[in-house]
Please model this.
Amino acid sequence: MYETYCADVRTRINLGIRRRLAPLMGNHRGRIELLTSILLSLPGTPIIYYGDEIGMGDDISLSDRNGMRTPMQWNQAPNAGFSHADPAMLYSPVITDPVWGYKAVNVSAQQSDPSSMLHWVRKMNALRKRLPIFGRGSFEFVMPENRKILGYLRRLGNEQILCIMNLSPYEQTAQAEVPGLTGITPMDVVAQVKLPPITHQPYGFTIAPYGFYWLQLSNIRTG
Model:
């Protein structure tokens, strides 16, 4: 029995993460953006694996983690613009299927599309860089009664950002307890719009399916 157990462990060791974000999320743009918003708003330094910024797929027919290590899909040229070598000489083959292949998903095509995943990730990454609170601030869960909502408060000095995420495929309403912030008008830092001011009551909001808010709560008091 011990030998069987050891053999089973050896077959599973070093597998790591074998799938990319886009395939795990069913190539659903809303889910991908939601998970990315959570990654970028957590403490520390986020890591985005190459290709995830354009929604690349994977090749799970390859062994171990090589399914995620396919050539970067730069454009529609041979070998996805990654190399001029003979395709047989590549360490891993390029992805060619109609959904995830380099002719459907590549950097060149997304650069020319303002609504592409690439432009959205660039915007969010630039926004995060302007908000040191995400990397260095404290972290505190806010627990709405609606369990489909994930909420947490980030603090750094006088700055505060309330992050609210809808984990559901349906529109949700919820209330969050935000004591000590009466009179502050939250600013959605992604959309750059103001929300209703906070009162003495629990703060209510409605959030779209797989939607999220990054709400700045500091230095935006009403007159």
The longest strand covers residues 149-156.
